Amino acid sequence: MLDTTQTNDSNQLPLFQLPPVAATVTFLPSGKTISVAVGTVLLEAIRQAKLPVAQSCGGFGICSWCKVRVMEGEENLSTPSQPEQRLMKRQSFKPNERASCQAEVLGDVAVTTTYW
Ligand code: FES
Question: Tell me, what's the pLDDT at 17?
Answer without folding.
Answer: 78
